[in-house]
């Protein structure tokens, strides 16, 4: 029979898995308490970094419907439960791991899909959500202005073409060529 404190811990971890956008599993062996504290600060409000017991976390992940991470619960494990932008959290973890090679990113899960350590690093290489949205807005704004310029260019080009044809006809035919209105009146 499970002890109440372990059952509570499993329920708490399962709730964290359910309420987060992503979760990144790391191995923290060799990091000092000060370094872990620095990592937690670098994650900010976007994520909560928790050192966890493998067996309890594996049970909690399975209860939350995440079975893809079962083989990654080996060795000392800590989980970054991401509630904000997953890209920013992945960047913070990647940057911290560059400065502190003892931190090893094992893998994770994003919106129910398992991610390898390499995929998390690729996620970290993306631009932030705000930058991507700004680029999208700029692209959407550019398309209507390009269309408006095109629609304005067509009538002005038509007018210039008609003027050029009139000048050419006037040079070729001169005054002896009747205007179209005079042809209609003569008939």
Automatic annotation (TrEMBL):
GO (cellular component) term, any one: large ribosomal subunit
Segments traversing the membrane: none
GO MF term list: large ribosomal subunit rRNA binding; structural constituent of ribosome
Region (Disordered) location: 168-187
Signal peptide residue numbers: none
Keywords: Ribonucleoprotein, Ribosomal protein, RNA-binding, rRNA-binding
Listed GO biological process terms: translation
SUPFAM superfamilies (UniProt xref): Ribosomal protein L10-like
Function, in words: Forms part of the ribosomal stalk, playing a central role in the interaction of the ribosome with GTP-bound translation factors.
Family assignment from sequence similarity: Belongs to the universal ribosomal protein uL10 family.
Assembly, per entry: Part of the ribosomal stalk of the 50S ribosomal subunit. The N-terminus interacts with L11 and the large rRNA to form the base of the stalk. The C-terminus forms an elongated spine to which L12 dimers bind in a sequential fashion forming a multimeric L10(L12)X complex.
Stated name of the protein: Large ribosomal subunit protein uL10
Gene that specifies this protein: rplJ
């Amino acid at each position: 029979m499970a002890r109440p404190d372990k059952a509570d811990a499993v329920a708490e971890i399962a709730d964290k898995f359910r309420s987060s956008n992503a979760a990144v599993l790391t191995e923290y062996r060799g990091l000092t308490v000060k370094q872990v504290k620095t990592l937690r600060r670098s994650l900010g409000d976007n994520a909560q970094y928790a050192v966890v017991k493998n067996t309890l976390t594996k049970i909690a992940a399975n209860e939350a419907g995440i079975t893809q991470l079962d083989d990654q619960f080996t060795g000392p494990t800590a989980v970054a439960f991401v509630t904000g932008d997953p890209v920013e959290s992945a960047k913070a973890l990647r940057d911290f791991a560059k400065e502190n090679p003892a931190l090893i990113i094992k893998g994770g899960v994003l919106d129910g899909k398992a991610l390898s350590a390499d995929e998390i690093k690729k996620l970290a290489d993306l631009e932030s959500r705000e930058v991507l949205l700004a680029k999208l807005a700029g692209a959407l704004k550019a398309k209507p202005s390009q269309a408006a310029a095109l629609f304005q260019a067509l009538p002005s080009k038509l007018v210039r073409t008609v003027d050029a044809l009139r000048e050419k006809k006037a040079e070729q035919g001169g005054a002896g060529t009747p205007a179209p209105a005079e042809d209609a009146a003569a008939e």
